[in-house]
Amino acid sequence: MDTLHLLDTFNLLPFAELEVGHHLYWxxxxxKVHGQVFITSWFVIAVxxxxxxxxxxxxxxxxxxxxNLMEYALEFIRDLARTxxxxxxxxxxxxxxxxxxxxxFLSNWSGALIPWRIIxxxxxxLAAPTSDINTTVAFALLTSLAYFYAGFKKKGxxxxxxxxxxxxxxxxxxxxxxxxxxxxxSFRLFGNILAxxxxxAVLVLLVPLFVPLPVMVLGLFxxxxxxxxxxxxASAYIGEAMEDxxxxxxxxxxxx
Amino acid sequence: xxxxxxLAAETAKEGGLFDLDATLPLMALQFLLxxxxxxxxxxxxxxxxxxxxxxYIRVNQSEAQERLTKAETxxxxxxxxxxxxxxxxxxxxxxxxxxxxxxxxxxxxxxQQEAQVQREQAQRELDQQKxxxxxxxxxxxxxxxxxxxxxxLGQVPG
Lengths: 256, 158
Fold this sequence. Notes:
Chain A has 6 helices and 2 strands, in the order ββαααααα. Chain A has 256 residues and is mainly alpha-helical. The two termini of chain A are 29 Å apart. With 158 residues, chain B is mainly alpha-helical. Chain B is rod-shaped and about 200 Å long.
């Protein structure tokens, strides 16, 4: 898929242009990587680390400023992990789930709020790291690994018992689920963020002033929701993998 | 921006939306590194801060609760003591009053008895004197009647 040829005609306008599927390739040995993804992700990582350092520079009993904000974020993450994974096991998973949430959230919002396109690249353009399929697939696969790891660590080989719960007839569906989980995770995030950026870009292309604003606000909303969904589902999968089947009748978290 | 130093831009022969390449594992690695780094600079210290704070609040609250119960027991104790001393004072007053009345009635009775005794004595003396008087009167009557009789009899023979 190259540029959207349909829109080439609009490129006469000086305001904006659309580029989809163009990447800035860096070569590492004989590997190729998407440079624009890494540039924005480094920005997001830098923001996260700087914010953390600012928050923990001098920890007070009565928090103020940055510490307050980051503690709010951390409490939110802990609540999320606790409700999805359970009181006993959630603490070990807070860093993973929390970093997923924070990184995806900041990526999405940086894509929505920061006019990356002002910075010209030789090829491709800067955008939210989450609008690249590599990023989302990476996170989704990490989530899969995480829940397998959680399940095997908790139950050993007994984890395979999950596949025949509550009925052995569930076995094929459960196996399929292992593939659909990362697939749906990655494509949901990728699709939402890319679609949002495209909608905004197309609207800016057509009507440069004011009209795209509501869509941009909606984009902020979707971006936040997508980050929350990704983190919630990841922790739900982890919680599900560690769930005890000793007592029946507990509802499973279904993915949306 | 001097990115071009690092960049080797390539004509986008390949590419497209679903272009999976080495970005994927590198991003995963980078993410795991971020998890580790954030665990050190963010999750651990702030979790500790939050836990310490809730522990501090919990301890303080339980201490305050303890002090409150202690104060309440003390207040109750004082109240009980107050009630007891009030009851004691009332009892003292009551005994004193009872003693006083008993003493008064005793004294009254004694006085009455004494008065009775004295009256009886006086009565007895009176009776004695009356009898004495009556007897002497009788004697006088006797002697007088004798004298009269003698006089009468003496004249007759004489």
